Amino acid sequence: MTETEELRRVADRLAISDVVVQYATGADRRDWALYRDCFTDTVDIDFTSFSGGEPERLAVDEWVLQVRGLLPGFDVTQHNSSNHVHTIAGDTASCVSYMVAEHIYLDTSAENFVTLGGYYTNSLVRTSRGWRISKCRLDVTWQRGNPELFALAAQRAALLLAGED
């Protein structure tokens, strides 16, 4: 491998990890423009290990609306991403990364947190805007805390979204 090829490979790895981290940052900061910018215009989403159902192909705006229908209902979330393993083949790539996602809901007399752990497998493509996620798969391998908080957060998020109209 030439020095130029090696530099490009390193730059690609950094750029891919940046997009994966941007995903978490946008979600946790509720910066929906930043979050949206992580993805291609159409994205394949597979969160079946978390929510059941079937994988979906969605317009990116529809996916962002689904996430906005849950996360803002929590008082705070923190999605941590680590151990990125990259596979790059030209203008396509995958990045498998560990995740630990903390979700805090303060207005409850029950346990006020739920934590998910596992890993993401993101497929990415090089676009004119740089690397973007075209497929996002979440594999939840462990959970602790109060999973009922997801329903409470979804209810609260729906009220918040309705107030924006």
Description:
The chain is an alpha+beta fold. It has 5 helices and 6 strands, in the order ααβαβαββββα. It has helices spanning 3-29, 32-36, 48-51, 60-68, 149-164; strands at residues 39-46, 56-59, 76-89, 92-104, 113-127, 130-145. Strands 2-1-6-5-4-3 form a 6-stranded mixed beta sheet. β5 (113-127) and β6 (130-145) form a beta hairpin. The longest helix is centred in the N-terminal third of the chain and has 27 residues, at 3-29.
Mean pLDDT: 96
Q: Note the gap between the termini.
A: 55 Å
Number of helices: 5
Shape label: globular
Mind telling me the C-alpha Rg?
A: 17 Å
Assembly type of the shown chains?
A: single chain
| Helicity level | 25-40%
Strand arrangement, major sheet: 2-1-6-5-4-3
- Runs in which pLDDT lies below 50 for 5 or more consecutive residues are none
Strand content: 35-45%
Secondary-structure content class: alpha+beta
User: What is the H/E order?
Assistant: HHEHEHEEEEH
* Count of strand segments: 6
Biggest sheet descriptor: 6 strands, mixed
